[in-house]
Design goal:
The protein is built from four helices and 16 strands. It has 246 residues and is mainly β. The chain has a single domain, classed as Acetoacetate decarboxylase-like (Beta Barrel), CATH 2.40.400. Strands 1, 2, 3, 4, 5, 6, 10, 11, 12, 13, 15 and 16 form a twelve-stranded mixed sheet that branches. The radius of gyration is 18 Å and the shape is globular. Its EC number is 4.1.1.4. InterPro entries: Acetoacetate_decarboxylase (IPR010451), Acetoacetate_decarboxylase_bac (IPR023653), ADC_dom_sf (IPR023375).
């Protein structure tokens, strides 16, 4: 293979059979269970990188069912998003994500910098209850429950949340193990169609784990819960801060 051919085809690894295709990445019938809970402010400050600012002692714990996603297939995801502010604009910092499908793990980490790790999340309905669970190996690290479609949620609030910016810390090492890329990335979702949104009583429990430390942001009080289904496009990102340029 000629050098020019390598450069022309170097989109993702492996060169001759990339782990994921080029975008755009469209998601159909993407189902969310989001539990908003109060936590320890010092614990948040210890994990949110500057120049992002923590605005309140709150975490959004998410379970996301993705049955139809361009190039990534059918999978489920679970993780924590922290409300933050950047240059006065409110958004969310994606702190941790666990999922059960290799292409979105590879693509998420390499393209945007999503903090994805391999695990086993589930989101399903058990009789009258929406249930989300996260197992890391054989160990249960998270469980959420919510009454199924008890009340219609505020669609405008859900859409506003989906329109807000999200932030990621993208880290790619050099071949000698030192950082080659260390950037704060901002991304948005677009072309959103909200198909339904509901709220109801909810619970959340997190358990300590050395390699899936979701419980390091402890649950002090569940504030609210929302369950919604949407179609959306995951846009590519932009770099808003380069840590290595300082």
């Amino acid at each position: 293979m000629k050098i020019a051919d390598v450069k022309a085809n170097a989109f993702a690894m492996p060169l001759t059979s990339p782990a994921f295709p080029p975008g755009p990445y469209r998601f159909v019938n993407r189902e969310f269970l989001v539990i908003t809970y109060r936590t320890d402010m010092d614990a948040l400050r210890a994990v949110v990188p500057e120049p992002l600012e923590v605005t309140e002692p709150v975490v959004k714990y998410e379970f996301i069912r993705m049955p139809d996603s361009t190039g990534f297939g059918d999978y489920t995801e679970s993780g924590q998003v922290i409300p933050v502010s950047f240059n006065g604009e409110r958004g969310g910092y994606v702190h941790a994500m666990y999922l059960n499908d290799h292409p979105p793990i590879a693509g998420g980490r390499e393209l945007w910098g999503f903090p994805k790790k391999l695990a086993t999340p589930l989101l399903e309905t058990e009789i009258d209850t929406l249930v989300g669970t996260l197992d890391y190996g054989k160990v249960r690290v998270a469980k959420a429950t919510m009454g199924f479609k008890h009340r219609v949620a505020d669609h405008a609030a859900v859409l506003a949340g989906l329109a807000a910016p999200n932030y990621l810390l993208k880290i790619i090492p050099h071949v000698d193990g030192t950082p080659r890329i260390c950037e704060l990335v901002r991304y948005y979702t677009s072309n959103v169609t909200l198909k339904g949104a509901w709220t109801g009583p909810a619970s959340l429990e997190l358990h300590p784990h050395a390699l899936a430390p979701v419980a390091d942001l402890p649950v002090l009080k569940v504030e609210s819960a929302v369950h919604y289904i949407t179609d959306l496009t995951l846009d590519l990102g932009t770099v808003v801060h380069d840590y290595l340029a300082e």
